[in-house]
Amino acid sequence: MTMVWIKDILWFSSNNGVLWGEGALNASPEELHNAVKTAFGHLTNRHLIEACHGNRGPLANLGDITYEEFIARLNNIEIQ
Question: N or C: which end of the chain has fewer CB within 10 A?
Fold first, then answer.
């Protein structure tokens, strides 16, 4: 299952939602807000849903990836 990490603040996937990471304890309110807003903005991404519900599509079998890797892969999918 693909899970996307935003720093060490939180991780998200379309089947688990948004879950806090240990880094949230030391993050500023602004960092927390931005991370949550970013995560919820991607929960309905079609490619993430395919990977998390049925382990298919171009993001399948990635496991834990950083947010930067996630965006890079999405951009690569759009180019193809």
Answer: C
